[in-house]
Write a structure and sequence with these properties.
The chain is mainly α and about 210 residues long. It has one domain. The protein is about 65% helix and about 0% strand. The chain has eight helices and no strands. It is globular, with a radius of gyration of 18 Å. The N and C termini lie close together (about 10 Å).
């Protein structure tokens, strides 16, 4: 798992740039999907943007710094403006993780090309490798079925309305309890994400830093 606090100066800067870019694309994808489906709530609030400052979440950013994974500021969605509330909400929720999958595939392509001409120690190789890992982390972590992550909205698509109140109420408690344990008690609750990264790296045959 990535840990910015243990990174040297050069690696720290590479991490920060990769995080800002990945988070911005992820949240922009949500806003863009909502816009295409008829909901301009996010657009009216300036979230249809690739500017990182429009998407950073304080606790999500701190989580990235401390344990190597995190989240951006949730994009507001008004289901009343959607033609098909449940279906379109699901599409909007999936847009973020799907954008990270696209970035994973693009980073693999550029990494393969760069490795033909550049040594593994090159700064561009380092950035592409970090970018590859970060987008896997964002994709997998955000698919966890807990609010405020995208996975919650995906589960909510099939969850009966009478259970949604309790799911949201207690889901937040569970989520922040897990984050607390990972950050302050150093419990490797999310250590399995590192195994997923290795599976992707082996599948695409790309180097990890």
């Amino acid at each position: 798992m990535l840990n910015l606090l243990n990174a040297n100066g050069q690696l720290f800067i590479v991490y920060i740039i990769a995080i800002l870019l990945s988070l911005s694309v992820h949240e922009f994808a949500h806003a863009w999907a909502a816009h295409l489906l008829g909901d301009d709530t996010a657009k009216s609030l300036g979230r249809l943007s690739l500017n990182p400052k429009d998407h950073l979440d304080l606790f999500g950013s701190l989580s990235f710094l401390l344990v190597g994974f995190g989240w951006g500021k949730p994009v507001p969605v008004n289901p009343l403006l959607l033609k098909n509330k449940k279906r379109d909400s699901l599409i909007i929720a999936l847009a973020g993780p799907f954008s990270n999958l696209i970035l994973v595939l693009l980073s693999v392509i550029f990494l393969k090309i760069a490795l033909i001409f550049l040594p593994v120690s090159n700064l561009l190789i380092l950035f592409l490798s970090v970018f590859f890992m970060l987008n896997i982390v964002l994709m997998i972590f955000n698919l966890l079925p807990l609010p405020p992550l995208d996975g919650y909205n995906i589960v909510a698509y099939v969850l009966p309305n009478k259970y949604k109140y309790y799911y949201v109420r207690y889901g937040y408690y569970i989520f922040f309890f897990l984050i607390f344990m990972a950050i302050f008690l150093n419990v490797p609750i999310f250590g399995w994400i590192s195994s997923v990264i290795k599976v992707f790296a082996n599948f695409f045959n790309v180097p990890l830093i």
